[in-house]
Amino acid sequence: QNNQPKMVMEYWTGWFDNWGGPHYVFDADEMVNTVASILKLGASINLYMFHGGTNFGFMNGALHSDEYKADVTSYDYDAVLTEAGDYTSKFFKLRQLFSTIIGQPLPLPPMIESKASYGAILLHQYISLWDVLPTLLKPIKSEFPINMENLQLNGSRGQQYGYVLYEAVIFGGGQLRSLGHVRDRAQVFVNTMYIGELDYTTVELSLPEGQGFRQLRLLVENRGRVNYGLALNEQRKGLIGDVFLNKTPLRNFKIYSLEMNPSFMESLRHTTGWSSVPDYFVGPAFFRGRLWIEHQPQDTFLKLQASLIFHSPPGWEKGVVFVNGRNLGRYWKIGPQETLYLPAPWLWKGSNEIVIFEEHTAGRIIQSVDIPYLGRTQYVD
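Below the sequence we write its predicted structure tokens.
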């Protein structure tokens, strides 16, 4: 456009990560050289991202072109400033470039807030999801499956995030077929026995034969909605259609909303039924412990890892972490992300409650560390 200002509206300084992939990074020198070239042409530029961020709670997005890929909790993005606000080599190289352009030094940047390593946190109590259901959650009864957005909840606004548990009575076993109606991932149980998972690629499971009537349970996770692209109008979550056992569609559901909002977490805190964590336990279940902070809280990072005790279970496979009732975000052992950013304002001086919803196998401890680890890196062009 003649005689119009030129601007690069979104220059990517890095890229976001998906579960199961690498942690993407973008070469700092290449980025700064590109910025210099754009400015030399007399154009303005917007850096996306300048400051990395965090997809707290269930707020991560997703991609869905050839396959569905959910974003991780961290939105560090390999940005100019990290998700915790720390400086990077990109920051200092950009400062040097801008100083050269204006012909004078830039003011000194602010001091970075130090990070804390509070050590090991023992998760000493647990309560099974199956024990939570009758005391904290009232099911919605429906002949047909209902996707989470259309559940009669929250003043008829439905459920937006989290999990939904669908229960139906079955007689016998056979082939369970989802026909692609699971959004986005379902753990399948017969009574409380774990059978397997259904998702976009796994659409069929074999259910074992058994005597009498049994409960089939599908714990469906909304892993995150697509935030751009052609699938924007196809983001209903939960069960979006019929699921079949052999050739018969499942009917007469009890549907439990597991939005895990603050009121639910407050009720969970005061419910009876919490007990000591056994040597080995398979979820889904809630686990809780305490982080004690002597002085003014500082930013930290939570690392979920296997227990250090010999012959102990591997621990902490997939789930969600809550700190003082707030949803910090998801973790998953497939990576790449291995630490969750926990900002100081979420913490209190004294006792802090840590609750973990673990879908599979639980550990016994988590670590508070002062350095993030976002996974194995891969450079992007």
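The chain has three domains: 7-112, 119-128+261-370, 144-251.
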